[in-house]
Amino acid sequence: MHSTMQDVQLTISAIVRHAASIHGNSEVITPDGIGYRSMSYRSVLGRAGRLANALRGLGITADQRVATFQWSNQEHLEAYCAVPSMGAVLHTLNIRLAPEQLAYIANHASDQIILVDASVAPLLASALPAMESVIRSSPPGRRPRPLQRCGKTVLRYEEILAQQPETFDWPEIDERSAAAMCYTSGTTGNPKGVVYSHRSTYLHALTACTSNALAVSEADRILAIVPMFHANAWGLIYAALMSGADLVLPDRHLQAAPLVSIIEETQPTIAGAVPTIWNDVDRYLESNPARTSPHFGWLPAGDRQSPSR
Questions:
Q1: Is residue 304 in a domain?
Q2: Which of 35, 39, 156, 273 is deepest in the core (most CB within 10 A)?
């Protein structure tokens, strides 16, 4: 006997549709070095639809890999939503890796297209021959830097989005199919790839929202300091979309002083970063007692945290 209950695939596209329809007024906030860019989930996910249409027009089909080489920002969030939801596989490249490691990873993963922040594009020169096309992202307020000669088609992110509609017919995807992948670093031999399924990502986000985990809700504002190229940002991105929590993405501003400013000005209730970041923030606050000491739920992982202030 089978149940008569509604059965749905646990996919990232389900999270995206839910966020757009139920939590459309929640915000994504990104510092730009001068102030902040803010956009509603509804608008961001509309741009994700534009990106999916653009990638489909460039020939990306199910199971093909689309790489990102970006800071944690709104544009990276759009890729987080668009790429796996269209059935392709999101491959987040670690901008901290050596050029030879990046070249190996891009070739091993068979990346077809890369979405690259213009500010870090020169770091990727040796890996570019593996790509069919390069899409350069340069958010408003940031002066674009030229790509080194790579012999590949280079497209401007905002231009290709402007040519596409916001609506995209998100396909039905097997929840056990690949959604995203990343590679290890600091191990013996070449970096090793890890592939996340839609199901595992969905359940991880759902667990983060439970009371015995992070208890994330639409009343929260999450500051995801942990990079989006590192272990899917610990699931914070999809947990925010699922719950309707506002999302603060720090872009390149990862030093203690700008982070404290971001914390003071955006007032997050939850923040996630490795202990080295929190230790730097702690030392900065000790030497600058006039600054606000943060009060929120913080998530350290990967090392030993210094005693809390």
A1: no
A2: 273
On whether residue 9 sits in a domain, the answer given is no
Burial class (CB in 10 A: 0-12, 13-18, 19+), 115: buried
Distance CA 83, CA 189 (A): 29
Tens-digit pLDDT string for the chain (309 aa): 989 998 899 999 999 999 999 999 999 999 998 999 999 999 999 999 999 999 999 999 999 999 999 999 999 999 999 999 999 999 999 999 888 888 888 889 999 998 999 888 888 876 676 666 677 665 554 544 556 566 677 888 999 999 999 999 999 999 999 999 999 876 678 889 999 999 999 999 999 999 999 999 999 999 999 999 999 999 999 999 999 999 999 999 999 999 999 999 999 999 999 999 999 999 999 999 888 766 666 665 545 555 455
